[in-house]
Amino acid sequence: MAEIVFNREQTRLMAQKIQRYLEREHQFKLGDFDAEFLLDFFTQELGAHYYNQGIADAIAQVEAKMENMVDTLLWLEKPVHN
């Protein structure tokens, strides 16, 4: 699996969400630098779980579409007369 990497703007926005959550729900103020380190920890330790679930969800969608396509193709079959 490729490393999970976010661009600078994505990192900044996610770190701000962590800061807001901790301050709102736990009255804990976390600086920008520390929020980014916490985000890096979540990404490294938990990111693969979310990534893999996304892959599993995508596979389920593709399989459902393929099943639908097979049904459609079978519907197009012509009867064979003996």
TrEMBL record:
Species per Swiss-Prot/TrEMBL record: Yersinia entomophaga
InterPro entries, A to Z: DUF2164
Protein name: 1-(5-phosphoribosyl)-5-[(5-phosphoribosylamino)methylideneamino] imidazole-4-carboxamide isomerase
